[in-house]
Amino acid sequence: MSRVLERRKLYLRLMRQATLERGYFTVADIAEATETPRSTVQDWVNRLIEEGCVLVTEEQRGRHAARYAASSVMPESACRRIFTTVDGGEVEIYHECMSGGCAAFCEFHHARAGGALQSVRRDGTLLRERASLGRREVAVGLDPAPAVGIVGVFHEDGYVRQQIRSIGGPAYSLTDMMSLAEGVCGVTVRREGPVVEGEVVTRALAYVAVGIDDTDTGTEGATFALALALLQHLAKLDGVMPIGHRVAMLNPRLEARTAGNSCSCIELAVDPDLVPRIEEAAVRFVAGEAASPEWGIAVRQGFRVPGALRAYGRSAREAVIGREEAERAAERFGAHLHGGRGVIGALAAVSLIGLPHDVLLDPGRDVCTGWERV
Q1: Which part of the chain is the Transcription regulator TrmB N-terminal domain (predicted)?
Q2: Which of 61, 201, 213, 269 is the least buried, fewest Cβ under 10 Å from its Cβ?
């Protein structure tokens, strides 16, 4: 599936380049540039015509070959990455865009549409959406109707299929851009007048949260910096998609704190078979780079946070917690702890995933405030 997608990207790039330079291309032009049989290129041209990516500008006449043009010479894709994680019967969809404006547009219209989505949240240019499996119809159209909505999400054979309905600009994104985003395995589309419905296929990855705390001393290091370094390190490994880094404030009155008492959490989307290896790599990295011997990390798979685990995070912001309590909570909720005293705050960081930045940074805010509901 990935080879087909790469071939599609190559053909579209060459076709758009020729359209920019000469106003058209022929099958022979693309066949020569790619050292591919003309019959194969013709099949691709026919397919891209059906998808609306290529137009016939001049029919074949005798010995004169048909001429074609790419339907757009704009940037190949505003979509940088599209990937998904699965936790039980729910899916998280991550869509990173080149533009904060485009990301905000999708956030607004996806939330208005509802459909298969439970919640929609944007962090800069990264759109994060929580979806239930199944299909729920959405009527798209002109304002006040949504221009785009996710009508279905399915998890089968290690892949996630998003079914998206759209018109106008979002339809162009679906037909011409999403297939070029990193993480996309394939896109199929069909038109019904001005409405385009497509299916975007991505790998069903595992969500992994790594909480980190107590890696610094009063004079050396910073946990947030080490967490960022760890995120960059793990992002280079095959089978890993970085999601982001978050900072959370814990009990500001704790006597053993080095400064304001913050902890960090990094979020990753990982090939399910690689989760143990990623955990081992995280432990090695933090153990080797931490300035404090009390460093600790907590690793937990899954983006759904049970209420009792969230309550542990609340306690870490309001009271003094011992290691035994952290170990009991970790065992109960499937988290793995490594290191010294820092595991207490590291588990708290994991327990607070999914909360807005303003809640994470204000220990006086109620941690029950979660994602905005659709």
Answers
A1: 20-70
A2: 61
